[in-house]
Amino acid sequence: MSVLTSPRGKVEAVHCRRTESQDTYCIKNLIRKFTQKLFGSLNIISLLEKANFAITLHNDQEEIMAQATFLDYPNWNVAPQDDWVSVFRELDSEIPCTPLNTLFMHLFVAVDEYSVGCCKEIIRTVFKAVPDLHFIFLIVPSYMSLGSTLITVFNQVGNIPSLTYDEDFAVHICHRHSHYPQLHIRKARVEDHDDLVPIFLHHDTILKETYGEYFLAELIEAQDEENHAIVCEVEGVAVGFMSVCSRVNMQLLHECFDLRPFHGLCTPHPDDVLEPPQELSVQGSSGAELRSSSQECQQIVKEPQEAVSPEAGESIQRKSTEEAAMEEALSPVQSGNTSEAEDTEKLSQEYSVDTRYCISNTSSASISLPEETSNFRPIYKGTSTAFCIQLFCIDEKHEARSLDFMNFVFSLFPDKNFCIISLPHLTPEFVLIQNFVKIVPFNNCTLDQDLYVFHRAGLLKTIKIRLATLLDTPGVENLVSTLMLSKSILEDLQQYNEARRDPDGTPLQAFVAEVAEQVVGIAVIRDEMDIEYIRSHYNIEDFIYFSHHQREEHGHLYHFALNPIFQHYTKFFLKEILRLGYKSCLYYPVYPRAKEGKFQSSSAHSLTSALHYLVPVRPRRQIVYPLEKLGINAPSKEVFRDALSYALNHTNRKLTLEPKITVNAKIVVVGASSVGISFLETLIFCSHLKFSNLTLISTHGLPGKNLLGTEQRKFLASDHCYNDKDHALMSLCSWVNVVVGKMTAIDRAAKQVIVSREEVVLYDHLVLCTGQQYQVPRPTGADISQHPTNREVLNSGLQQYTGPVPCNHFTLNDEEDCLKALTWIRNNSIAVEGNVIVYGNTIDTYTTVETLLNLGVRGSYIHLVQHPPTSIISCINNYAVEGAVQDALRAAGVTVYRDAVLAQWNDGLNPDPIHSASFTTPTKPFQLPCSMFFSFCEKNVDYETFRAFNDACLVYDGRLVIDTNFHTNDIAIRAAGSLTKFSNRYYSNEWTHSNFNSKEIGFQLAAVMLNLFDPTLEPVTEPPADLDRLIPMYRGAKIKGGILPGSYHYLHIAKPAIPTPLEVQMAQSDFGSEIVTGNVKNGTYFRIHTNKYKMVETITCLSKVPFPASNYIRLFGQHEQVLNNLCARYKDGLVPDLYSYFMEPWCMALFHDRFIDLRKELRQILSSKEEENLPSIEELARQIEDEEINLPEKPKNYLKRVFQETIYRPLVEKSILDSLRYNHYHLPMYAWQGIV
Q1: Any residues with CB less than 8 A from the CB of 1222 and at least 6 apart, and which?
Q2: How far apart are CA 562 and CA 1127, in angstroms?
Q3: Confidence of residue 279 (pLDDT cuts 50, 70, 90)
């Protein structure tokens, strides 16, 4: 915040922020005729879309006081966008302007009274926000004066002609040193003590408490050849301090961090041991497998000679951004002098032999090498080439200039090439380390510190981005020689040099980054030819106004590699690609890994180390169109074509100078349940945050591997939260570390999770989402020869099964388990001759039976044994549907046994494998032959998981106990999902997370935790004590579906509720009404239940043919009038078949992903817009409800008349038509004004 004073003495507090699209209206109101003459006639929205930096000043009342827009090329068309440097160098050769240090002002507006103060505040803020910026140019017609405001910060340097007009333009310049100058750096003196102590004490008092009041003076006095103290000063006052030391514990660093990319920070030595001995390379940890790559089902590459496609690199598992560009050793760059000119000259002589070691391909980790060699540590015999920063502090006002220290400190150690700093990992990322490379720790490192490295060459500001030429080929070959896809990069570079376009005619561009005449980076882009598909399938309009970007301005990033010591120039590289390539947007896809450990080869994308400088784009939910019914009114093929799914990442001109907030907290999620996946999804799609330490612990890694291929029938029912395509569209593996193993213990004191009894995973925040699983049933042991009944043996079956699990016994909890079962069936000829027992009474028993029938197992060989129900409510809770399923089972020859309890396997002998199974019933026992046993007994918390909770003293009462904010009794441990129950103090034992939609639970969990990390969110206020006793109620639909016996496609959608028999629900006075069409026998059953408010609460479908389930899910929560007055039409006999009804063109908008946004917009109109002397419609409805007004007519008629006769109807109609017009590519079946 700053305080401005007007010439009349009025005072106004102003705040700076990035310009937002909703500022457009206010900006237009601040434009004067003088502004138009100065900057030209501008389309404000388009200008903001293409701006690299736009800043707005507002006061405490959120009124906009001023706005300025900056781009990286001149306005008024005085020089080409891609070649303006030479023009301005000719104007004044003493101004060393480059694309790195220069921006151009394209617009400035301000409230007249405060314009001078606003202008200076904006200029100061821009220089502060962009540390590399030194010059801001302003170009205006030569006959125009700058006016009384801009003249205070700009000085004219000359005139240049326009490329299109026959007139000259005046060039004005603003220098950094006049507003936010570089800091003067010098050695510290004892007299600096009094200036520095307040800065230190403002941040922390630990040093004073530990080392005494004069610790700083003693540190300054103790300087010698190995220890130096440096200060930065402003006007003779020390405002920052840095203590550096050349003594570094290299042994500890080599043990804890993977420093191979930088050759261990040592000089090369003949005795260095850089590769593990052969015997080590085939050994590894036998327990959990900690994977730093993206694929949780990694396999040894069996065919190394086979060309590997780009997607290898796409599916990298998140380790840290810095890992993405390194693997091989980096031989240090020797440059012992301090001046940039001398460094450049030295670098040009010695750099060429080293650059090829700086880049490598972490995608090789995506195809796992032989079992992890985590015990191996390289041995470096050379001398250390690093010094460390021991202490650093700087006044917040000058923090943006922190890098000014680095030139001076490197001059103190001419024989050192690396500066390192280690920090507690929870330290917020400050400006200085944003220029450092974060080093990847070894998997088993338990050091609670992060290590950051900066190379001397990173100080060079002579980096230049340009289009590649044929002469760059040797440099690029040298640069990418260690990359797995170097061949693909070089082929594309050759194609560019030869033809400038692909063989199919797509324009192609290649760019190189050059420092000291050496190639340090390469990028290849093509024109994005699938932009219509991208727009319709991804929410790119969260980041851009699509209509303000020309088709040719969309680019597709194929390759990107940059030497890691210049990693802090990644965003500059991307910005230059956009400028030189005349692009405004770049897109980068991440394809899923194919099965069998091979890779898709449809596109050649290399791994990009720039992934964390891009933003992930959310996929859009797609309408399932009835194409035959729509005919010519169907969308284009670009919209509905079934292309290979991929996760999309994006950047644009607005984002090139937009910083991300790094969150280094170690967030560990246990369990890849829908809740856990939803939680991780919510975090990674926060585009302004970068979570660098997300870890998932899961027995089978990430789901979504499409293990069952194109098998239409799945063994397990679906909750419709995620499918394989959804996982491909998210690519969580690009952002999340995956530890494959099982949590066996939690050390709360050390904040550690023990995986598979041996591996250690550290956490700051632990999120438990393991859910509940089907368990191996424990036979009661009853001897059926004694003819026992359930009454005699039932209680003995409640204990945990502790014996060996038979090889032909299967509990199916995820796709991995299903694949094992499927493999067993095919390998053991079960479909031909095996007897299969399916034990349980959940919906999964029905879907499993149907899958077995579909696989060819004869119905007479399938035995469905249902154990005594634990509730009066069946798994389907609809007699009509249950009757159809039972009829289908009988027709297929499947034998059904009810109220049966497992007594013995193999008559009590060795159960492995199971040859027979005995059961007791309420009457007489029975025995069945068995080749395969499926158990679907009631789900419960896994025993080992329970032991981990219990040993960690987490409160467990049948389930893990949590409060309304997901906390367990440990503030650092949260839990969610069916694993949990609410504390007894809420008196709501019947409500648990099992009653709600898992995806919504995960989202709400992430929303609670984001309050800890996201500074842009409003602080959360604690609820009153009485409200803290209320449990949260979530609104998302609870869904289940699958294919039931008889090939019935089943879907049930219902509101969250305590399970109640359907007959009891229908007997309630406030039940509402139901609409049923078709019948279960013909497979045309469709039931909709609306509550007393006419809102859709329940949908049940049972069909012989597949139906668009994702469409029907969107009907939940809609009012029946939105469904084209469904209730009235049904009563009039106009809706004979709901399946056909919801295939009609009129309802396509209901299934659109932005229909909910339209509803919110219409609600906003009715609640906020007011006509003169008349309250809003919402206020009128409240007054009628409270009987504050007397009406001569029915309230409904009165509100309808007010709507028709006032401003509301045209506003609502306009909003609807605008929505249809904007989304016409999805909804071409609708007409709107202008096309009819």
Answers
A1: none
A2: 62
A3: low
**Which pLDDT score, from 0 to 100, does residue 641 have?**
83
- Higher-confidence residue: 608 or 23? 23
Please name every residue paired with 738 in a beta bridge, in sequence order, or none if there are none: 291, 696
C-beta of residue 561 within 8 angstroms of C-beta of residue 636: no
Q: What is the pLDDT of residue 429?
A: 86
Q: In sequence order, which ranges of 294-366 are alpha helices (DSSP H)?
A: 311-314, 340-350, 363-366
Which helix (H) or strand (E) is 1016 found in, with range?
A: none
Whether 316 has a pLDDT exceeding 80, the answer reads no
3-state secondary structure of 207: helix
User: In a 3-state reduction of DSSP, which class is residue 311?
Assistant: helix
CB atoms within 10 A of CB 1080: 22
Using left for φ > 0, alpha for ψ between -120 and 50, and beta otherwise, residue 1157 falls in alpha
For tokens 């906390």, the residue is 967
Who's near 1064: CB < 8 A, 6+ residues apart?
A: none
Crossing angle between the packed helical segments 843-854 and 879-892, to the nearest 10 degrees: 30
What residues contact residue 556 under an 8 Å CB cut-off, 6+ apart? 525, 526, 527, 528, 529, 586, 587, 588
H/E stretch holding 15 reads strand 11-18
pLDDT the model gives residue 783? 86
Closest alpha carbon to 1218 in 1162, 1142, 1145, 1168: 1162
Cα separation, 726 vs 28, whole angstroms: 42
Task: Give the model confidence (pLDDT) of 395-434 as tens digits.
Answer: 888 999 999 999 999 999 999 999 999 998 888 888 999 8
Q: What residue has token string 């027709």? A: 891
Burial of residue 293 (CB within 10 Å: 0-12, 13-18, 19+) is buried
Beta strands in 1069-1193 (DSSP E): 1073-1077, 1084-1090, 1096-1103
Residue in this structure with the two tokens 């019935």, named with its chain if needed: 1048
Q: Report strand pairing: 836-840 vs 932-936.
A: parallel
Whose tokens are 């000014």? That residue is 404
Phi first, then psi, for residue 537 (nearest 5°) are: -115, -10
Q: Is residue 727 within a helix (H) or strand (E), and if so which, with residue range?
A: helix 724-730
| Of 773, 854, 864, 756, residue with least CA distance to 811 | 773
Q: Give the pLDDT confidence score for residue 339 in this predicted structure.
A: 38
Each residue's pLDDT tens digit, 688-745: 999 999 999 999 989 888 777 656 668 999 999 998 889 999 999 889 999 999 999 9
Confidence of residue 1207 (pLDDT cuts 50, 70, 90): confident
Query: Phi and psi (nearest 5°) for 365?
Result: -75, -20
Tokens 């089978």 sit on residue: 700
Tell me the C-alpha distance between 866 and 901, whole Å.
8
The answer to whether the bond into 913 is cis (omega within 30° of 0) is: yes
- C-alpha dihedral sign at 346, 351, 354, 360: positive
Report the distance separating Cα 366 and Cα 605, nearest Å: 14
Q: Which residue has the tokens 């507690």?
A: 424
Amino acid at 29: N
Number of other residues whose CB lies within 10 A of the CB of residue 394:
26
CA angle 1016, 1017, 1022 (to 5 degrees): 150
* C-alpha span between 604 and 213 (Å, rounded): 61
1070-1085 residue pLDDT tens? 999 999 999 998 999 9
Let me know how long the chain is.
1236
309 neighbors 599 (Cβ within 8 angstroms): yes
Q: Within 794-836, where are the H helices?
A: 815-827, 830-833
Report the C-alpha gap between 464 and 98 in whole angstroms. Answer: 9
Query: Cβ(765)–Cβ(972) under 8 Å?
Result: yes
Cβ neighbour number for residue 1166 with a 10 Å cutoff: 18
DSSP letter string over 1198-1218? Answer: HHHHHHHHSTHHHHHHHHHHH
**Exposure string for 992-1025, b = 16+ CB within 10 A, e = fewer:** bbbbbbbbbbbbbbbebbbeebeeeeeeeeeeee
